[in-house]
Amino acid sequence: MRILRYMKKYWYIAILAPLMMLGEVSMDFFLTQYMQKMVDYGINTGSIENVTKYGLMMLGIVLLGVTFGILAGIFTNLACFKYSNDLRNALYEKIMQLSYNQADDFSTSTLITRVTNDVTQVQNMLSMSLRGLVRAASFFILGIVFTISISPRFGYLILIILPLELLIMIVFMKTMTPHFMSMRKKIDNLNTVVHENVSGARVIKAFGKEDYEYDRFVATNDDFTKTLLFVNKAMAFVMPLMMIIIYGASMFIYYYGGSSILEAFAAWGGIGTVDDSNMIMLGQITAAVTYISMICMSIMMLGMMFTMVINASASAKRINAVLDSKIEIEDGNLDISTLTEAGTIEFKNVGFKYEKASANVLSNMNFKINKGEMVAIVGSTGCGKTSLINLIPRFYDCTEGEVLVDGVNVKEFKLFELRDKIATCLQKAELFKGTIKENILWGKADASDEEIEEAIEISQAKEFIDTREKGLDEWVEEKGTSLSGGQKQRLSIARALIKKPEIIIFDDSTSALDLITEAKLHSAMRKFCPEMTKIVVAQRVATAKNADKIIVIDKGSIVGFDTHENLMKSCDIYQDIYNSQLKKEDVFDEFK
Amino acid sequence: MNSNNKNEKKNQQVHVGGGPRGFARPKEKPQNAKATLKRLIKYISSSKILLITLLFVVVFFTLANVFTNIAIKNVVATLGIYNSETKLFTIEPDKDEFFKWTLILCILHVLYCVLQYFSSLLGAYLSVRTVRKLRNDLFKKIVKLPIAYVDTHRHGDIMSRMTNDVDNIANAVSQSITSLISGILTLLGCLAIMIYYSPLLTLVSMVVLVLTLIVTGFMSKHMGPLFAKQQGILGNLNSQTEEMVSSYKTVIAYNYQEKANEKFRQASKEYTKVGMRAQFIGGSMGPVMNFIGNVGYFLVCLMGAIFIYYGMGKTLLGAALDASIVIMFLSTTKQFTRPITEIAQLYSSLLTALAGAERVFAVLDEQEEDFSKKEDFDLETIKGDIDFRHIAFGYTKDKQVLKDFNVDVYSGHKIALVGATGSGKTTIVNLLLRFYDIDSGEIYIDDHNIFNISKKDLRSAISIVLQDPVLFSDTIENNVRYGRADATDEEVDQALEFANCTSFVSKLENGKKTMLTEGATNISQGQRQLLTIARAILANPKILILDEATSSVDTRTEKHIQDAMVNLMKNRTSLIIAHRLSTIQDADLIVVIDGGVVIEMGNHDELIAHQGKYYSLYMTQFAGKEI
Questions:
Q1: I need a labelling partner for B27 at 20 to 30 A (CA). Which of A27, A50, B6, B169 fits?
Q2: ipTM for the assembly
Q3: Phi-psi map region of B434: left, alpha, beta (phi>0 left; psi -120 to 50 alpha)
Q4: Is the minimum CB–CB distance between A108 and chain B shorter than 8 Å?
Q5: Residue B71 lies in a domain
Q6: Is residue A504 part of a domain?
């Protein structure tokens, strides 16, 4: 349980909590013990002094008990909340340091659940352990001690019923766990069908398959219902089973204790005093029954706790996996004031392979891009375009050769300074909850209004922002759902431009723009940002055509690096791409 | 949480076509609890015999529990009273009575356990059955809801009705009913025997009842808002995490990590503060309730002893109070306060369930799509002429998407719709398939007004291939067969062949029997699209709609798909919506839409010659000409 290392700071609270809990539970036992004394030495002897004495004791015990209880609660919460706060922060910070590679490995959605769900799970588990587990364990141990203190012979009783209860508990958990798992899976199946039906509603309706889908759902639902019923039936069975053992034990105590009284009575025969050396008195019988049921309840509590701990330990494992991951992309030591070039990019024999892939995505890449140039990268999907540009801001590190920015290997830069030079626009423009202005200011927090104006003008976002009621102060919903794809892309371009980076990279980030807007964007960029080095990954030849140079990639290798005119003459694959978009009829002719 | 995220993510890929979306989820309190409860009970009572048997069993097992107290009292009483000081029996034990009552106690215990088993069992059956029926009904409804509903409601919301809400109802049905009835009976039963054995001591026990009521009231009043606040801040923290982590790439690219960390630390600190405050009260609940129980225990014990000493607190029959009665009171006092705390908890879970039920019923009350017809529509004989006449339509009243849309399509022709995003291209598809109904104007297929024919017939004449290929988690074969369930194996193979699927399908381990995962993530985007084309080919419709069918694949892959499309479009009326003009150059008719009206129409050459909007679009796209 290395996950507990963040508890170190709060160890004194973490120790106090279970101590208080132990105190609270002991008070419960003492209370029962004094009840027994009250009955046996107060009520049945008719001694009012004893009654008052024990009464006062009981009052003290009750008050002490509640004090312990509340303190236990406070200490537990204090420890758990402070701990989980530290854990959550550490986890989040770590996530922010992960490389793309690691983030892909974990996948963002599981990273999110690790922060949101798993931390809460661990916190709950901890508070449960500090309170519930300690509580159950105290009941268990104190119960045994107090029962035996009444009569050592009850110890034998405990010896019989405890293993029995534990056995039932263990057998139940063992047999049910796989069913719980399969139930979870069947719920997922159910959700899948519903989800497919909601998101694929158009297709289902267009094919008129409503009834077919209903049948499919009923079959899935029945499958789930069957398991659910089985699990419920098993639960319905096991609880009374455990209860009957507790009752059996208490019946034994009544019988055994009662017999001891009857025997003493028979032996007495009405002459002299009763020999009560072997007699278990009324109060004791009642107290023993209470103790035994406390012990058995504690076993059930432990059982429930156990499932929780198992769940939480899965969460703890997931959290640890993130916390333990090594930082893959580390800072270099470069002093950027020593740089002699600016805005250049050079690839020298660069090769790149994803960690778990068997083959290189990119191999033997060689090219140099000069300051202020616009270079387009074209090639079919999956050919490695995005992989290539990801190497420049070190989202990934190349596995062979070296990538140079401003004439220096990117690995020598401090990450912050390297990425400060570069602005990347992704195809899926990611925006954040806030105003349009706030989103743009992501690029440069202290930008002036004029700079914002300029950025939205170049990015062609001005036109639609102006139609908005609140203009720049218009609210953007989470992930920009209130905007269209094209609007999101234009805002993300504005966000990149305002940074005034040396290098700007468009990773197919104009795919949702119509052609005219895209053309306007590029001509504005040429006009207003001549000093910026521009790398444009493009689907459309029309976009690429006007670049200073075009890199043509096929299956991870550069097959052409030249101007449009030259490539049309020299590069088959470029011609192929060009033709597939432009002269369709000709292509078909070729195919025939 | 996990699956929720997944759904959220998927929702954004869903093809909506520009309708309004998003209704806030109602607050966690039923609007009309009474009516909803009535309706829910109706649902439950569909298994009447089960319900009545359950009620009987609950009554009996509660009675067994109540009588157990009397039996214990008598077991203890028959042991007489022994004075440990004088070492003499004040009252002598009665052997025969002792064994008699021990036996009765034994029987009651067994009876209680058996009855409890049956009550849980019946409860399980009842809840599982109710919920199964509810889920099936709900799904049946969802499948038949009009597209407008699906477009305007968050998918996660619809999903959560099926999962969370129905689960809450299940819990309420299986637990609340039995707990409520047995709780009330226990309360009354315990009270009755307590009063019978000692009205005076009962008054002492009442102190506990009063204390419990006060504390429960206080807690629920003060804890509710605090917990709500805690939940709110947690939600805030979670959504912040979700936003930043899912946009992780942008955060990294903009060196935003430190700022994100700072924001997160703030939110986490705030949550910790509020959480600790809420849990301070919440965490005290247990000890305080325990305290009240102990106070009762102490008071009964002490007052019982005092009453006995002074000969007070006689039973209703005038017998003296004794130790056995005090011992009985110790357990009955506990038993009769327990239902009160339980009912308080039940109440809140019942409210949650009712709020869920209300949402579920709200869906069940939605208008279904109308499949009735005024005219017969013979799929065999139709030709596939489509005539759009003066169509006007808006998703909302204040915003018209189409204003006066007029196009006449001849059977067997290929027509292409071109226009900017939001110009209404997809809307036309929505209207033709009657996913939405037009505000004014008419659409004819051959000489049938599509409003007079059944939607079912209409849709079986049309197949669509969408930009985001929709496939189901089933085998490839079944997915292809989706459009025509009775197709033979040969026909399926042929469709796969026509759609250029054969080569990749045969490379899969189980060929066409390969199971697709949810979202068909085990094949590539291009392959998914080819499968939807195969599906459309097999369905063999008279009219075909391709809505941006190739826009999410690159042009070289598109070429591959294009060949399949050419096969698909042979001998059918085809309606093509495309971003890339390369897809549509050979269309018989190209319709350029802007601002909801047709601004240009004609074939490629005519429109190029016309040098209008189409010409400029074409030039920027293909020639890369600057504007």
A1: B6
A2: 0.80
A3: left
A4: yes
A5: yes
A6: yes
A271 touches chain B (CB under 8 A): no
pLDDT in tens, A258-288: 999 999 888 887 778 888 888 888 899 999 9
pLDDT confidence bin for B217, thresholds 50/70/90: confident
- Alpha-helical (H) ranges within A114-269 are 119-127, 134-150, 152-199, 201-206, 210-268
Q: Considering only residues 303 to 362 of chain B, which have any Cβ-Cβ distance to chain A shorter than 8 Å?
A: 304-306, 308-309, 322-324, 326-327, 330
CB proximity list for B459: less than 8 A, separation 6 or greater: A205, A206, A207, A208, B433, B434
CA distance B462 to A562: 47
The answer to whether residues B140 and B213 belong to one domain is no
User: Are A231 and A267 in the same domain?
Assistant: yes
Straight-line distance from the first to the last Cα atom of chain B, in angstroms, rounded to the nearest whole number: 49
> Are residues A458 and A505 both part of a single domain?
yes
Q: Which domain holds residue B190?
A: 33-197+356-367
Tokens found for residue A414: 């401090």
Classify strands A374-378 and A549-554 as parallel, antiparallel or unpaired: parallel
**Cross-chain residue pair B123–A51, CB shorter than 8 Å:** no
Separation of alpha carbons B336 and B49, rounded Å: 30
Domain that holds residue A130: 2-183+223-323
Residue A414 sits in the same domain as residue A534 = yes
- Tell whether A285 and A380 lie within a shared domain: no
d(CA A152, CA A159): 11
Q: Are B407 and B388 in contact (CB under 8 A)?
A: yes
- What is the DSSP track for B279-302? HHHHHHHHHHHHHHHHHHHHHHHH
Residue B361 has pLDDT above 80, yes or no: yes
Query: Is the same domain home to B90 and B179?
Result: yes
Phi, psi of B411 (to 5 degrees): -60, 140
Q: Do B622 and A582 touch (CB under 8 A)?
A: yes
Q: What CATH number is associated with residue A385?
A: 3.40.50.300
Strand partners, A561: A551
Q: How many other β-carbons are positioned within 10 Å of the β-carbon of residue A530?
A: 11
Statement to judge: residues A438 and A580 lie in one domain: yes
Distance in angstroms (rounded) separating the CA atoms of residues B466 and B545:
8
Q: Specify the DSSP class assigned to residue B453.
A: B
Of the residues A291, A323, A355, the one at which a domain ends:
A323
> Residue B474: which CATH number?
3.40.50.300
Assess if residue B392 is contained within a domain.
Answer: no
- Same-domain check for residues A375 and A238: no
pLDDT digit string (tens) for B6-52?
Answer: 333 333 333 333 332 222 233 356 778 888 888 888 888 888 898 89
**Contact list, B247 vs chain A (CB under 8 Å):** 430, 432, 479
- The bridge status of strand A533-537 relative to strand A549-554 is unpaired
Clarify whether residues A363 and A511 are in a common domain: yes
Strands B543-547 and B462-466: parallel
A-chain CB neighbours of B460 within 8 Å are: 207-208
State the 10-residue block means of pLDDT for chain A, 592 residues long. 79 89 93 92 88 93 94 90 92 87 80 85 84 88 92 87 88 87 86 85 83 91 93 89 90 92 86 83 91 87 79 85 86 85 90 79 90 89 81 90 92 89 84 88 88 91 85 82 81 90 88 79 88 87 84 88 90 82 44 31
Q: Is A233 on the interface with B (CB under 8 A)?
A: yes
What predicted TM-score, i.e. pTM, was given to this entire model? 0.76
Return d(Cα A503, Cα A425) in angstroms, integer. 11
- CA separation for the pair A203, A23 (Å, rounded): 65
CATH value at residue B187: 1.20.1560.10
Query: B46 and B146 in one domain?
Result: yes
Same domain, B59 and B192: yes
B370 to chain A, any CB pair closer than 8 A? The answer is: no
C-alpha A531/C-alpha A498 separation (Å) is 14
